[in-house]
Amino acid sequence: MVGTKAKPKLKKILEPLGRFGDRIGLTPNRITVIGFSISILTGVMIYLSQILTPKIEFFGFSYILSENTRILFLAFALVCLFWSGFFDVFDGAVARYQNNITVFGGFLDSVLDRYSDTIYLFAIIYSGYCELYVGIFAIIGSFLVSYTRARGEAGGVDSKHMAVGIAERSERMLIICATIFIQGLIYYTDPNSIIDQRWGPIGFGVLILAIITQITVVHRIIAAYKNFPKEPITEQNSDD
């Protein structure tokens, strides 16, 4: 919701960024793929932050990492998540500046956003930062927030009616960034804190995501119900 309201102002702010991207020869789709690649690094950094005895092996050389390295990996994860979000708005700025807003570009951006959300949430689950069922509900909710809006707009509801709720992607990423930062502070103040912190800051953040995404989905279902055309239809298209 906050992200939707801020978009008109952001478009003006990001105009110089779009000009810069055009000058260095970037295309919107290329930027989208770069942002997705960074989100993969985010997942890797989150996973590495939870290895009990981190060990790097490369061409016969090995190096045992210290406990404090968890802080470094979480810091890298935070930076990667930030840049992933940055590229998510960068591609739109370049597309607008180049007057190159295409249907496929929007489709690709939406698909890779869903992959990105799944990657960092799965990394959090697999690394033991949250309970399995909480993470699964957060992933499902993240998907349905996007899906309900897309289906509502496809059914003829104006986007301003479907852009309701408190769990758009920008808000979700801010929550994860904040909780990763807090988790890093805990590791910094107490390097020997327990590894399995399923109800630590990150786990609590994922729980918040699981709750607010479901609330947003219900909110959008209600908005769709109120604004869908009331005339009966003769044929229902398949979701596939």
Overall domain count: 1
CATH superfamily, please? CDP-alcohol phosphotransferase transmembrane (TM) domain
- Identify the CATH class: Mainly Alpha
Topology, number of strands: 2
Regions with little confidence, pLDDT below 50 for 5+ residues: none
**CATH topology group:** Four Helix Bundle (Hemerythrin (Met), subunit A)
Structural class: mainly alpha
For the residues shown, what is the average pLDDT? 85
For the termini, the CA-CA separation is 28 Å
Most strands sheet: 2 strands, antiparallel
- Helix fraction, binned, reads over 70%
Which second-level CATH architecture applies?
Up-down Bundle
Order of helices and strands: HHHEEHHHHHH
Work out the helix count: 9
Q: Trace the largest sheet across and list its strands.
A: 1-2
Could you give the topology of this structure?
Layout: H1 2-13, H2 15-23, H3 28-48, E1 55-58, E2 61-64, H4 69-97, H5 103-126, H6 132-154, H7 159-162, H8 169-189, H9 201-227
Antiparallel strand pairs: 1-2
Question: Can you give a write-up of this model?
Answer:
The protein is mostly helical. The chain has a single domain (2-227), classed as CDP-alcohol phosphotransferase transmembrane (TM) domain (Four Helix Bundle (Hemerythrin (Met), subunit A)), CATH 1.20.120. The protein has 9 helices and 2 strands. The protein has helices at 2-13, 15-23, 28-48, 69-97, 103-126, 132-154, 159-162, 169-189, 201-227, and strands at residues 55-58, 61-64. The chain has a two-stranded antiparallel sheet with strand order 1-2. The longest helix is centred in the middle third of the chain and has 29 residues, at 69-97. The protein is globular, with a radius of gyration of 20 Å.
